[in-house]
Amino acid sequence: MINNLFDVFLDSDPATFCLIKHSVRFEKSYIEKSISTLEKNLTEIYPDWEGLKVFIDIKDRALYIIVFLTLLKLKSKPVLVPIEVKEEDYKNSEDVFMSDNKNLDFGLFINTEFNVAVGSNFNKNSLVKTSDATALYLYTSGSTGKPKLIEKSVQNIAVELEELKKIFPINKKTTFYFTPPIYHIYGLLFDLFLPMSCSCAIYVDYLFTPETIAQYVLDNRIEFFVSIPSYYKMFVTLNLVGSFASCKYLTNSSAPLDKETSKVFYKRGLNIVEIYGSTETGGIARRVSPKDENWELFSYVDIVKSRENEDEKARELLILSPSVSVDFDKTVGFNTGDIVEFTGDNKFILLRRNTRFVKISGKRVDLNYVFSKIRDYFHSKGLENVDEQNLYVGCYKEKLFVIFSDEYPDEFHIIKEELKKRLPGYSSPRYFVKKEIPRNSMGKINRVEIEKIAEKLFGGNK
Q1: CB 318 within 8 A of CB 334
Q2: SS3 at position 190
Q3: pLDDT band, residue 188 (cuts 50/70/90)
Q4: Torsions phi, psi for 319 (to 5 deg)
Q5: Residues above pLDDT 70, as percent of the chain
Q6: Which among 42, 263, 370, 419 is least surrounded, fewest beta carbons within 10 Å?
């Protein structure tokens, strides 16, 4: 087991590990020189970076990796900043902020030549160091509210990395390409640590549209493709699945991938391995849904006997795992917030989240239940493709609302009347919106934007 995350880079094979950008191959020797250059420039600004929290907001993928590795070498504690996090969250005098796209007066501005410009209000005398076991910090995706900062230790990362190397028997010639950002736990592991620990080539060009991504994978004969549900769904819709014929491994995380999308790849001999977990827990389980809808636990995860819900088969998923990075009662287990049905040794079916209850007129309402009734009604009207990707049920000021990204099957007043037949009056939605469900960069629901929509619907009164 590794003792320092920078050792993953040091142990990589210089003959095969590299970054590839715009068809240019950046060998390990170049990366080492770049790290040394940046290390020198940073220590001229401040001599000892060990223990400093450094918020990094870097757009260029190659630069991001070099900055991140440099900070690990300096024994700093990198804080990986997603686009959803606002300036007020990292503007403070005790920590460092570093960016290649925001030239802020309190931070450091870096370019691709590794030159560092110091902001006029950067105060090195106020910086504070910590000596705990935290190796780096990640933000949660914010799918249940405002993103939270989560500490990750070397062990948290290392134990999952070793598991992934067992699951995916890749060799040094395997080529990687990814769509998720590195600042997400899924991205950090699959975009960087896994290929680096296996001494593989990482293609780092940033592409956005499904057409350009598919063509890039085809042209470069990518063997390990890392992505999220929204892209896989677009690849199917646009008939681009054939472009992934060279891929030996495809992975999905951030949300479950619908089985029909996965099945299209599966019929072409392409298995999309879904990874189930979170920023707090790390990886928990995996599956290839067309083969088996059951999730199979990672070998290091143990199940704690869970409390029963209303359905005796449905139980809260409580786990013990060395990749969990937050404090919890070991006698109870970490509550993942999910309800599952155990189907055998180390296997379960994911049923639903256990966190979507609201109070309306003093009565407890399960938004998942409301969702299911709306979905059933839409199905009865001939809309088959209704799921969490295009339908959302929310609550604001004790009033329910619906966002649907496709065409509604009836006029709104008809839908309201039909739903009243299926739901109690207090839990029947009042407003319906035809709109794309706002999502963050990982494809998860953006609660902040959802709240803005609700405020407009209900007059903006808090």
Answers
A1: yes
A2: helix
A3: very high
A4: -130, 160
A5: 95
A6: 263
User: What gap in Å lies between CA 72 and CA 74, rounded to an integer?
Assistant: 5
pLDDT value of residue 286: 97
**Secondary structure (DSSP) of 206-226:** ---SHHHHHHHHHHTT-SEEE
pLDDT at 446 over 90: no
CA-CA distance, 216 to 211, in Å (whole number)? 9
Q: Are 65 and 35 in contact (CB under 8 A)?
A: no
DSSP lists the bridge partners of residue 353 as 338
Paired tokens of 284: 């928990």
Kindly state the DSSP code that residue 113 receives in the 8-state scheme: T
Over residues 61-74, mean pLDDT: 98
Give yes or no for a contact between 278 and 338, defined as CB atoms under 8 angstroms apart. no
Of 63, 167, 181, 49, nearest to 111 by C-alpha is 63
Q: What is the pLDDT of residue 143?
A: 52
Cα separation, 283 vs 403, in Å, equals: 30
Compute φ and ψ for 247, nearest 5 degrees. -75, 125
Q: In what helix (H) or strand (E) does residue 249 lie, and over which residues does it extend? A: strand 249-252
pLDDT of residue 461: 44
| Predicted TM-score (pTM) of this structure | 0.82
Q: What token pair was written down for 389?
A: 């990707």
Query: Cα(first)–Cα(last) distance of the chain, in Å?
Result: 51
Residue keyed to tokens 């029947």: 428
Stretch among 6-10, 196-200, 232-236, 416-420 having the lowest mean pLDDT:
416-420
Crossing angle for the helix pair 28-45 and 61-73, nearest 10 degrees? 60
Average model confidence (pLDDT) for the chain?
A: 91
Which residues neighbour 146 within 8 Å (Cβ) at sequence distance 6 or greater?
447, 448
Secondary structure class of 243 (helix, strand, coil): helix
Residues 6+ apart with CB under 8 A from 30: none
pLDDT reported for residue 434: 93
SS (H, E, C) 40-71: HHHHHHCCCCCCEEEEEECCCHHHHHHHHHHH
Q: What are the backbone dihedrals phi and psi of residue 317, each rounded to the nearest 5 degrees, phi first?
A: -90, 105
Of residues 89 and 152, more confidently modeled: 152
pLDDT in tens, 337-393: 888 999 988 899 998 776 667 777 666 687 888 998 999 999 999 998 898 889 999
Q: Which domains does the chain have, with CATH numbers?
A: 25-151 (3.40.50.980), 207-301+341-353 (3.40.50.980), 357-457 (3.30.300.30)
As a whole number, mean pLDDT of residues 152-162 equals: 96
DSSP 192: I
On whether the CB atoms of residues 378 and 371 are closer than 8 A, the answer is no
